[in-house]
Amino acid sequence: MSGFTVAIVGRPNVGKSTLFNRLLEQRKAIVDDVSGVTRDRQYGIADWNGKAFNVIDTGGFVPRSEEVFEREIRKQVQIAMEESNLLLFICDVATGITDLDQEMAHVLRRSSKPVYLVVNKVDNSNRMLEATEFYSLGFDKVFFISSMSGSGSGELLDEVAAIIPEDENALPGDNEIPKIAIIGQPNVGKSSLLNALIGAERNIVSDIPGTTRDTIHTYYKLFQKEFMLIDTAGIRRKAKVHEDLEFYSVIRAIKAMDEADVCLLLLDATQGITGQDLNIFSMAGRKGKGLVVLVNKWDLIEDKSTNTARDYEKELRSRLAPFSNVPIIFTSVTEKQRIFKAIEEALRVYDNRRRRVATSKLNEVMLKAIEAFHPPVVRGIPIKIKYVTQLPTHTPAFAFFCNLPDDVKQPYKNYLENKLRENFDFEGVPVRLFFRKK
Q1: Three-state SS string across 175-228, please?
Q2: How far apart are CA 303 and CA 56, in angstroms?
Q3: DSSP states of 339-364 as a string?
Q4: Report field, pTM of the whole predicted structure over 0.70
Q5: How far apart are CA 298 and CA 383, in angstroms?
């Protein structure tokens, strides 16, 4: 999955959110749509021409307004400008160029990032004529669209996809070092985990500052194992603490996920799993990353009766469903309890994610499972699955060749996925199933 990020910016009410939804729905390829922590801000993953990219929808931009809410939005937009690879600047043809558009254009022309000017609500020939005035804002790339009807959005997406680098989806080489990201909400113990790991064995070769500010890559060589830890906990140590840290931390977590093979999701045992934790978990899963869940601060749970951990884990798995086949480890970072077990599990999940199953073995096992429980009959015709093969992708993906690929329903897909997991160890790894015409 590419770490390429597109931010949608513009003054209030020009149709940013409509465009955001349009980009995500283009080919019904919504991978995730996590509502922002504060009003009017969303993150999602769009897919076009086989290239996936992150999309951020920012609030409406009002330069120099002292109203607190508008000041907050301005900070978000500035963060989005820093963090993204491409900016889509949205204007509205119905109102023409306003002072706010002029001011914003002035801010954006100073950005080192490419900016595409997108004139919205161009839905007839008169408006097409009126839209030409926007060339005066001085941007090279100008697109006329209607995000309501979708006209013009295909050309815009073609241009976006064209500047996303190729080879993002190439298979990893054998000499690659596993990359493990520590993710989770603020104050769950991410920094402490990193420090506990570093402090325990000082065999760090180097601290490589991440490609983006504040994600620190730490190279490890421990117990004959080498791996790279990507830490997103540096977020709070910023010179300008007044920035919108929640927004910052979500973008950080998304970027860390993009770079990682396996994500360690830290939860606070005393808080349980929150909606935001589930958002982070599902986004990592949709991006095809390996996952290990660490329930941290377990030492603070007072009642340690026999079944506490078991009941807690059962409840946690039901919240994580349908992707509940993940390692769950109860840790206390401050007491250094089971923190190396967490790394061992992450490395095991890394191996699971790279597992290749021989086609002969796959067919032997899966055709038997299909024989034991046939897919339902559709319109009087039995679905016949003839052959299975693993696809050459980063995340385990399997193609099932059959006579009616579009009629295989979700419950049966779940059955097949469970059989794959039972017979081949894919714990902690999202598994994708595709059905193709034989």
Answers
A1: CCCCEEEEECCCCCCHHHHHHHHHHHCCCCCCEEECCCCCCEEEEEEECCEEEE
A2: 42
A3: HHHHHHHHHHHHHHHT----HHHHHH
A4: no
A5: 49
